[in-house]
Specification:
Oligomer: heterodimer
CATH class of chain A: Mainly Beta
Distance between the termini of chain A: 16 Å
Largest interface: A-B, 34 and 32 residues
Shape of chain A: globular
Low-confidence stretches of chain B: none
Mean pLDDT of chain A: 88
Radius of gyration of chain B: 16 Å
CATH superfamily of chain A: Electron Transport, Fmn-binding Protein, Chain A
Number of strands of chain A: 8
Largest sheet of chain A: 8 strands, antiparallel
Strand content of chain B: 35-45%
Structural class of chain A: alpha+beta
Structural class of chain B: alpha+beta
Low-confidence stretches of chain A: none
Helix content of chain B: 25-40%
Number of strands of chain B: 8
Number of domains of chain A: 1
Number of helices of chain A: 4
Number of helices of chain B: 4
Radius of gyration of chain A: 16 Å
CATH architecture of chain A: Roll
Shape of chain B: globular
Distance between the termini of chain B: 17 Å
Order of helices and strands of chain B: HEEEEHEEHHEE
Amino acid sequence: MDVRKLISEYFESAQLLQIITSINDQPWAATVFFAYDDDLNLYWISRTDRRHSQEINQNHNVAGVIVKYHTYSEKVRGIQLVGTAEELMGEEEEKCMQIYQKRYSFPRARVLNPSTEDENEKKVLYRLKPTYIVLFDEVNFPENPRQEFRP
Amino acid sequence: MDLKKLVQDYLASAQVMQIATVHDNRPWIATVYYVADSELNLYWISKGMRRHSRELEKNSHVAGSVVVNHVYGEKVRGLQVEGTAEQLKGVEAEQGLNVYKSRFWIVEEREKALAGENEPAYVYRLKPERYVLIDEVNLPDNPRQELKM
């Protein structure tokens, strides 16, 4: 089994990423819609006034989890990862926004520049570069479901 | 709208939560099946050797997230929580296990682990300090609501 390929397929099959940030050893969890690229980097859009966005600016170390809905009796599949996250700006933001738009079609200007004058509602694109990914997969690896991958 | 009731209903509608721990300002997250009691405490069972179990022993400050399935374009519902977590012992562990069993059955392998065999497993409890409910379905005008415990 190709773990990298399974991770990529899992990314493709899900939309929700839970992103974990922390300040002063207090974690915080938030849920976002994500897109991904060929290097398994993850992208999402969030308001800059949200707690997870503010914490990323102070501490780039984050964790994430992608779990599709399943119930107690089903075989478990899920992805955990750690890495660094950052706000994207300028040309990099424009380039990576295309990855996000490819998955979730909407006018870029409408999302990143809402009509409101309220600066608190400003949204930006974020990228998480994973350094370590754990695929937990009882379907494809019933004997050893915990598979580790370092991009 | 009764916010506590909405949180209770939301917790009852899902089975899986993500539990976030942190050590040296490096967060980690794991997925567990949970049960909530009437005080909105959350219970789960994990192996003691798992990273999240080890980290919450050193730092009891945790966060959690419960997400029901939805896709882009649908109205968003989600629940976030922060509080303190601990491994339960003695009578509290028995009580916590009973709460857990009210929703989930325990397979034989897990029973053995709870008895300390192989890789021992334990009952954990998260005591929430604050829930954040985002609910565009029931609270369309102000979907982000905080419930302080």
